[in-house]
Amino acid sequence: MQLSVVAAEPLISDPVNMTVGPDGRLWVVQMGDYPRGIDDKGEPGGKVVVLTDKDKDGTYDESRIFLDGLPYPTGVFPYRDGAFVSAAPEIFFAKDTDGDGRADQRDIWFSGFKLANPQHTNLRHNQTGSQSHNGRLHERS
């Protein structure tokens, strides 16, 4: 078995998820704004970029932004003429309708995920730091 680098900076940065589409392009979710936003005040800056191996040598050599300004993007799944994207608070289908490589249409399929980073909230921990199954921390009295 051989392991090879097929994509690296500057084509991608801060990847959190990726998948290869049926056409061989690599779809990458980037969360460069984690954990506090691009302005340190929560301004979303996540992206989905699409990488292409133009010269067919097995290494991606072109990167195009498909979507940007996303809050907490975590997943991408290319499908037909676009891609399903998970970015709190939604899962949506995005597609490029004018051929410029950037998504310009979004159809929301599900909404309701909490738009927050649970690692950066003010929670009071008990002495053992135990956490219940409902995701809440409980304080010992």
Task: List its traits.
4-stranded antiparallel β-sheet, 8 strands, 141 residues, single chain, disordered C terminus, mainly beta
Describe the structure.
The protein is built from no helices and eight strands. It is mostly beta strands. It has one domain. The protein has a four-stranded antiparallel β-sheet, with no helix packed on it. A four-stranded antiparallel β-sheet has the order 5-6-7-8, with no helix packed on it. A hairpin with a 5-residue loop joins β1 and β2.
- The computed structural class is mainly beta
Rounded mean pLDDT score: 84
Number of helices: 0
| Fraction of residues in β-strands | 35-45%
Number of separate strands: 8
| Arrangement of strands in the largest sheet | 1-2-3-4
Q: Kindly, what is the distance between the CA atoms of the first and last residues, rounded to a whole number of angstroms?
A: 56 Å
**Could you say which overall geometry the principal axes of the C-alpha atoms support?**
globular
Radius of gyration: 18 Å
Low-confidence blocks of residues? 122-141
Give the % helix: under 10%
Task: Please give the largest β-sheet.
Answer: 4 strands, antiparallel
